[in-house]
Amino acid sequence: MIKQQNMMIVSHQSIAEDVYELTLQGSLVRHMSSPGQFVHVKVTAGSDPLLRRPISICSIDPLLEQFTMLYRVSGGGTKVLSNLVKGSEINVMGPLGSGFPVDELREGEKALLIGGGIGVPPLFELSKRLKTKGVKVTHVLGFQQQSAVFYKHEFEQLGETYIATADGSEGTKGFVTDVIKDHSFEPDAYFTCGPTPMLKAVENMLDHTPGFISMEQRMGCGIGACLACVCHVQGDDTGLLYKKVCSDGPVFRSGEVVL
Amino acid sequence: MSRLAIELPGLSLKNPIMPASGCFGFGKEYSQFYDLSELGAIMIKATTRETRFGNATPRVAETASGMLNAIGLQNPGLSHVMEHELKWLEQYDVPIIANVAGSTVEDYVEVAERISGAPNVHALELNISCPNVKDGGIAFGTDPAVAKELTERVKSVSKVPVYVKLSPNVSDISKMALAVEDGGADGLTMINTLVGMRLDSRTGKPVIANKTGGLSGPAIKPVALRMVFEVSQKTSLPIIAMGGVQNEYDVIDFISAGASAVAVGTANFVDPLVCPTIIQNLQALLKEWQIDHIHELKGRSWMSVGETANYRT
Ligand SMILES: Cc1cc2nc3c(=O)[nH]c(=O)nc-3n(C[C@H](O)[C@H](O)[C@H](O)COP(=O)(O)OP(=O)(O)OC[C@H]3O[C@@H](n4cnc5c(N)ncnc54)[C@H](O)[C@@H]3O)c2cc1C
Ligand SMILES: Cc1cc2nc3c(=O)[nH]c(=O)nc-3n(C[C@H](O)[C@H](O)[C@H](O)COP(=O)(O)O)c2cc1C
Ligand code: FES
């Protein structure tokens, strides 16, 4: 069930260059069920910026009724967000969309989690849940450079973790696909989130493996009413079929929508 | 007696607040947040004869106190809207205003004729002002003679009153209002979005795939207010006003400018509960101001030259 609520900031800190970790508390957390879902955040009460900002849920703590999101300051809205301090409140709408299907894999099976940049956060809660189920998780995480890397140790605690940086300042030089090419992971399913070119490359490379892809799109309402966030459906010759990233996604089965 | 209940051609409204077309889909999403029967009416998403996909993405961009959109009239088409969306809405005690769009006169006429037969459609809103489609739409909204003829044609087939939605993208909006009044319109809705643009400063490229989009939100309220002020004094048609409404004070402003009712668009994206909140706050505000009925405020801005509000600094 979608809720809207003022949530309290219980911690807020910088964890990498321009990347922040923000933990919020409120009863809305009770409704968060699936990793890969997102929230729509109003960073100020006023009209600058006007619209909400979609941010993925990175981890959920139902007992404390807290959840964490990680975001990168990329424009005006996230800049305002980064200035908010512990103890203040922000308005959150969520949880939104459909997340990654944890039930896709059984105990003992292998999952490959592939994240790029600010697409990495939703994979964290997913990894925790898969590990709890006894699924063997491997992470391949891509970043621009070493200063942009975050949550490396957190992921390492859950499973094998490979880092790629575009400039080679940490881990493999290149992209996540370079890491995947150099290893024979042979996963039973993959789960990925990141920039669209990366998603395309991953979908092509792992085309014989069942996969789940989290998409990004500009949004208005965030709940399926405005049709801002649509994408085409693969194999639809009429061009009339569509999926809404905000409410049908953001996670889609590989081969389902046009990336 | 209710301070908010109003009567308009075809419409008996519990209150003068309704979501604007395209900002509320067909209501389903918002029904997760509140009982849609609380609304005065619902203006549903533009409906065309055939299914339309609309424009490429990105379709929206944020601007200072506003947003640009170029959805491009995406909708499931007339038959689907009638069989599914309008049917579903029948469970609510709320009149529907069907937003009708098309590329040719024949398109409009067919959609108007059929959709006006749905039991819960109490009025049509003729969308002659969508800035985001290449063929039709806006052409009907900028040429008074064409707009008048289209209104006549639609009026001749519609089973319910016809409101015409005016575009602000004209040099003289009153001319358009008078033309459609001449064509037999029962009311006006205004304003649709203002054509605008946003560029990525680094690359110089448009942010929206359609290059241009329609500007909405608080940024356009002064323009909308001025147009309602102007048009309401020139025609005798009732006006449902929209453009940047976010709270009860914005509603009062549009009523003061001469509108009879008010629609809320973009603000639904910011706060899904905005419509019921406005209705509640409006009721309380009128009570506090000891106003027995909202229409006591209607047109109070039409004062003589020289009279202005006395601002304290
Ligand atoms: C489902 C989903 C999950 C996301 N999860 C995260 C996350 O966990 N962490 C994170 O840092 N970022 C995430 N993003 C991207 C994030 O929404 C944008 O970085 C943010 O909206 C930028 O806002 P801004 O005001 O700082 O930038 P501006 O460029 O000033 O924003 C202008 C407008 O464009 C939109 N916009 C800009 N960039 C994006 C983008 N990449 N995707 C969608 N809309 C955008 C904004 O929402 C706003 O409406 C996610 C996006 C989606 C769609
Ligand atoms: C995303 C979006 C979609 C819209 N779609 C339609 C539409 O289908 N038909 C129409 O007549 N107006 C449409 N509009 C215009 C609104 O109904 C309204 O006239 C305009 O947005 C001004 O009101 P606002 O500032 O409260 O949003 C749309 C506006 C937005 C933001
Ligand atoms: S953002 Fe409005 S439909 Fe997806």
Write a concise synopsis of the structure shown:
With 259 residues, chain A is an alpha/beta fold. Chain A is built from five helices and 16 strands. Chain A is globular and about 50 Å long.
N/C terminus separation of chain A = 28 Å
General form of chain B: globular
The whole-angstrom Rg of chain A is 18 Å
Biggest sheet of chain A, in brief? 7 strands, antiparallel
The ordered H/E elements of chain A are EEEEEEHEEHEHEEHEHEEEE
Keywords, please?
heterodimer; A: about 260 residues; alpha/beta; Elongation Factor Tu (Ef-tu), domain 3; Rossmann fold; Dihydroorotate dehydrogenase B (pyrk subunit), domain 3; 7-stranded antiparallel β-sheet; 7-stranded mixed β-sheet; B: about 325 residues; 4-stranded antiparallel β-sheet; binds flavin-adenine dinucleotide; binds flavin mononucleotide; binds FE2/S2 (inorganic) cluster
Could you describe the 3D structure shown?
- The complex is a heterodimer of chains A (259) and B (313).
- With 259 residues, chain A is of the alpha/beta class.
- In chain A, 15% of the residues lie in helices and 34% in strands.
- Chain A folds into 3 domains: 3-96, Beta Barrel (Elongation Factor Tu (Ef-tu), domain 3); 102-215, Nucleotide-binding domain of ferredoxin-NADP reductase (FNR) module (Rossmann fold, 3-Layer(aba) Sandwich), CATH 3.40.50.80; 217-259, Dihydroorotate dehydrogenase, electron transfer subunit (Dihydroorotate dehydrogenase B (pyrk subunit), domain 3, Ribbon).
- Chain A is globular.
- The two termini of chain A are 28 Å apart.
- With 313 residues, chain B is α/β, with parallel strands linked by helices.
- In chain B, a hairpin with a 2-residue loop joins strand 1 (6-8) and strand 2 (11-13).
- In chain B, helix 6 (221-234) runs parallel beside helix 7 and helix 7 (248-257) crosses helix 9.
- Chain B starts with 5 loop residues before the first strand and ends in a 25-residue tail after the last helix.
- Chain A binds chain B through residues 1-2, 4, 42, 47-52, 77, 93, 217-232, 239-240, 242, 247, and chain B through 22-25, 28-30, 32-33, 45, 51-54, 57-62, 64-67, 69, 71, 74, 217-218, 246, 266, 268-273.
- FE2/S2 (inorganic) cluster binds at residues 219-222, 224-229, 244, 246 of chain A.
